Structure formats: C-alpha cells, structure tokens
Predict the 3D structure of the following.
Amino acid sequence: MKDLVTGATGFIGANVVRALLRRGREVRVLVRRNSDTRNIDGLDVERVYGDLRHLDSLFPAVQGCDTVYHVAAHYSLWSRERNLILQSNVEGTRNILTAAGQAGVRRVVYTSSVATIGIPPDGSWGNEETPLHPGDLVGDYKRSKYLAELEARKFIEQGVPVVIVNPSAPVGPWDIKPTPTGQVIVNFLQGKTPAYLDTGLNLIAVEDVAEGHILAAERGRIGERYILGNANLTLVEIFRLLEEVSGVKAPRWRIPYPLALAAGYCSEWIANYITHSPPAIPLAGVKMARKRMFFDARKAITELGLPQTPIKEALRRAVHWFREHGYA
C-alpha cells in the first residue's frame, strides 16, 4: 500500500515525503502540471497530476493508498488573488477528504495550523482545547485555515478517519518559497532586520513536524488535534539564537507596535495598488504579532512521541540550508 502526500512540493510536505521514504514507505505525491517540483526532484516517488480545486482529478490519486497526508495549503500572509487562498485551503480540503472517504483509506492526517487555536488572554499558552476568538481571525490565510479545519471536522463526524495536526512555526531545510517564518530568517541573514517587535513564536524543527505527521497516522486518535510545537521564544530571543548560529548581529532596537502597524498599512497599500507584489511588511503578520503566539505541545509529545530537536540546532540547519541555496 502507498501513502499519498499533497503539498509535497512545499516546505512541510517535502519533509514529510523524506521522512516516509526513510521508513521505506511507497510514496505517491499529488502535483499540479505547473508545480515547481525542485523539492521532490530526484526522489523515488510516484507522481500523479491533479488539482485540489478539481474533485474529479483526486479520485485516481487516492486509489490504492493506505494513508493520505493532506499537507497542501496556500500559505501566504498576502495574495493578489484572495479567493485563491479560500479555494485552495477550504475547497481543496473538502475535495481531498471527499475523495479519501470514498476510497476508504485507513487514515487521513490533515495539516491544520496553530492559527486555528486561541491564545488565552491571561498570557498562558494555548492548547488543543483553547477556543479561537473570532476577533483573532486576522487575514485571509488564518481565516481559511480555520474554515478548512471546520470542514475536516464535518468529515470526522461522517466517519472519515481524520487526525488533525497543528504545526506551530517550523524552521529548517527545503523552505524554497520561503514561508513567512523562513522569510524572517532570510531577512535577518541579509541584514534587513534593523529592529524587532515585542512578540513571540513557538518554533519547531521542520523534521520534527514531518515525524509528527507520521506518528499521528500511527498513534493519533481519530478526531483529535495535536499541536506540533516545541519552544516558545520571544522574537528577540530568536534573533539572538540566529546571531549565535550565523554570526550576523541581532537587532538591538525594539519598534513600538503602533509604528509597526502603521508601516504594515502603508506596505500593504503599496503592494495592493502600486507594486502588485508581496508587501515588505505584511499587515496580517503585524496584527498577529500583537499577541505572543505561545502554545503547549505536551499532548503531541505524550501521546505521539513528538521529537523535540533543540531549537538552536533547528535554526542552525535553516541558516545552513538558506546559505547553501543562495538565499543569503
């Protein structure tokens, strides 16, 4: 039997494929005809062509598969085509789960996000049971992931064997786009980070996220969600670790939040009406940074055995990969 991975050409998906191959699994990947396949070129995988927005193209992809890893998502804090984010993340999730349910697969691992999990107002860490306040649905990406997870829960109620994983902010190799978190590292390495915000993230090695997907398929309980995270760090702590592993000086000046918000609005306006390219300062990212995005991953550690690579080592691997591939 084979495992199907959607989103294999992306950051997390490429690492999931490699983790499966290391375990000797037969891997099938769903790709679009025009996909950038650099992340899977040379790997011993079966390619099938289809599009998550077109249900009929997905039935051949899931046939004969034991497990489906639905990792694909349109991950961007800004897009000229706002409907594309909803189509890819919400409609795409509905379609692949429809196909997987009809094919009778043994298990589906759906890659959600900590963006769908609330942050307690008292400053404590969010967990799998923390409700998301509607006011925290900042930006099209976060809204789409919230709606997509609701879709996944509908299929669980219909008997489709779905386990949900909620990665925090992974760092490491094969971040070719790069993702918003990877772009923070690239900007830092390029000396484009003169200041920092008083915010925080939960970081995890992307290799651990990939292992977490496989562990969720093997040990996860159907209908449950698992935060795939590791260390809660303030942004200044992250930059200091990056300074240690890269030799690039960390910023010493903290930018006031109102100034960052104003810069985000200006940057977004320029992107929307002048450059038509991603803003230098994504407004959604600034709004999300108002709260420290700290999460508790104990459930995944206890129930799944989620690995916890030291974050300094994960950042070292990310820096090495970005430099080796010419990003900085």
